[in-house]
Design goal:
Elements lengths: L1 H5 L18 H17 L6 H8 L3 H4 L6 H24 L5 H13 L13 H11 L9 H6 L4 H17 L6 H21 L12 H9 L5
Helix pairs in contact: 2-3, 2-7, 5-6, 5-7, 5-9, 6-9, 6-11, 9-10
Length: 223
């Protein structure tokens, strides 16, 4: 799968950026270093001025790529979910058993992420930490409906709908496939977060992962 992913260009809605960052060395550095900086100081404290100082570039040059830091976060999130979708598609393409196919997809979307060496300038393990901590900030805004119409969250919804289809294949009579699928994807981020910060309100820990929890729930679909 790594060889296949290395030959693919991760697709992100062009309405999110002003200039595709993948088309230049500066653009790739903006993406690479913004991931590291957001992970270090948090999105609320992140500014283009701080990023410009970090990469030795004028702040104005960053605005040629992204209108504001919100659009940058939406870009990073879209890149992550697009990368995740490719992983799910390749990993499940040759699986015929509905339960095994669903279990594989759920494992990929809920597991702890390691860096994918086939993507040279993005560390997915760090980006995963940002998604866990900051992803909800991309849509908990007054502009969410308009940005949704513009397709900013299309890839995220595609992943959920792929899982919806897998749930339906496994159990066509299950009455809540969309709610279950969205709970798996969004809930796993929440479980990863509270596992690290609010340990007393989750059963996930060093021995029990969010993946274990959601795979256990999948067993109920066949009952």
């Amino acid at each position: 799968m790594k060889n296949l992913l290395s030959n693919l260009k991760i697709q992100v809605n062009p309405k999110i950026y002003l200039k595709d960052p993948e088309t230049s060395e500066l653009g790739r550095r903006i993406v690479q270093e913004s991931i590291i900086l957001i992970d270090e100081i948090g999105f609320d404290n992140f500014t283009f001025k701080k990023l410009g100082e970090r990469i030795g570039s004028n702040e104005s040059s960053l605005y040629r790529y992204f209108e504001n830091k919100h659009k940058l976060l939406v870009y990073l999130s879209s890149w992550y979910w697009s990368w995740m979708e490719y992983r799910i598609v390749f990993a499940t393409a040759n699986i015929s058993d509905p339960e095994e196919k669903l279990r594989q997809a759920v494992t990929l979307v809920t597991e702890k992420i390691e860096d994918d060496e086939s993507t040279s300038y993005i560390d997915e393990s760090i980006l995963n930490r940002i998604i866990i901590a900051e992803f909800t900030k991309t849509f908990l805004t007054k502009e969410v409906d308009e940005e949704n119409k513009e397709g900013f969250f299309l890839i995220y919804k595609q992943i959920i709908n792929r899982i919806v289809a897998m749930i339906a294949d496994l159990n066509p009579d299950f009455p809540y496939p969309r709610s279950f699928a969205s709970s798996i994807v969004e809930g796993s981020l929440h479980q990863h977060f509270i596992k690290d910060h609010f340990k007393t309100i989750t059963d996930c820990n060093e021995k029990v992962s969010p993946t274990d929890f959601y795979l256990y729930l999948i067993n109920s679909l066949n009952k």
